[in-house]
Specification:
With 175 residues, this protein is mainly alpha-helical. The protein is built from 5 helices and 2 strands; from the N terminus they run αββαααα. It has helices at 2-21, 75-99, 112-115, 118-142, 146-174, and strands spanning 35-39, 54-58.
Length: 175
């Protein structure tokens, strides 16, 4: 039971770190205080005694688009990629530990040919996965989809956290 609390605490911390990395300074939007006066229609209403009142509408708060990221590996992205690298390393170590036990196999069909060849194959599979993560994030960055870039990095961290947690649970059950 203590192992599950430790795993839950580790996963919770790993989900808080990417959120903390997203904090960025954004300039305050300038308010537009222009007001528009609109009169209701002059058509007769059901209540003859009720005068037609003008409606004053205030323009909504104008939001400026934040500046586009100029640097791919800024501080938040560097933190996310560091966390992802650590999780991929932990996934590789725990995967090899679970695979060394009798009656287990790799669930990922794309990684299975690699990880069955020991540490060298695991290193190749982990390197390919990390390169795919950085490459996809860079693709989103170059095409101007900066929000999607951050979302993809956070999802990759979440998926790797789930893989490590699954490996730790499987290793604890098979002992």
């Amino acid at each position: 039971m203590k192992c599950f609390w430790a795993v839950g605490l580790m996963v919770g911390l790993l989900m808080v770190l990417p959120a903390a990395a997203q904090i960025a300074e954004v300039g305050a939007a300038e308010l537009n205080n222009a007001s528009i006066e609109i009169s209701l229609s002059k058509a007769p209403s059901a209540a003859w005694m009720q005068p037609v009142l003008p409606v004053v509408a205030s323009a909504a708060k104008v939001q400026t688009v934040p500046e586009a990221h100029q640097v791919f590996l800024d501080r938040p992205a560097g933190i996310r990629f560091s966390v992802l690298a650590g999780l991929i390393a932990a996934d590789g170590i725990t995967t090899q530990r679970v695979l060394s036990m009798a009656g287990t196999r790799e669930l990922n069909p794309l990684a299975r040919p690699f990880v069955t060849h020991g540490a060298a194959g695991q290193l190749a599979a982990s390197s390919l996965g990390y390169a795919f993560g950085i490459g996809t994030s860079y693709f989103f960055h170059r095409t101007g989809h900066h929000k999607m870039e951050r979302i993809f990095e956070n999802v990759a961290i979440g998926v790797e956290s789930a893989c490590v947690t699954n490996n730790l649970i499987q290793g604890a059950r098979l002992r």
